[in-house]
Structures
1.
Amino acid sequence: MKAGLYKVETIDKRTALLTSIEEQHDQFTFPVADFTHDVSVGDVVEIWREGVKWKTKYREEKTESISSHAKDFMKRMLEEE
């Protein structure tokens, strides 16, 4: 896997199938537990490596799923309380 922007295509119980936004033919699986947000099909995420760990970030401006925006909003509200 390499750093970049990915779209979540499908989610299994423990893994998500990701397709690269930059290179449409690159697909990878990524552990669902390693995402920093409650990931949904259709999300666009940025993935990069820091040391030996992969880091992820939900890309709100590139995600078109309304349910993903709602889940992210609720998570942020709960974290602020």
2.
Amino acid sequence: MKIQIAGPGCAKCQATEKNVRDACAELGIDAEIEHLTDPRVFAPMGVMMTPAAIIDGKVVVSGRVPTVEMLKQEIARHGG
């Protein structure tokens, strides 16, 4: 499973990345986690607002910091 965090590296983006890592740890998932900071990379993926979380190429949240619980649900929904 590949999880990407899209955003310039602001506090909200860092919080999103922390929540992604915490959700994966709680689920025992060894996901590939990547932070995308270049809008030229994440805009074509459909990200219009940051922070955003992308699981296996699908934007699951955009424009707000997702909770750990929300991320756990999305990860489970995507086969994690």
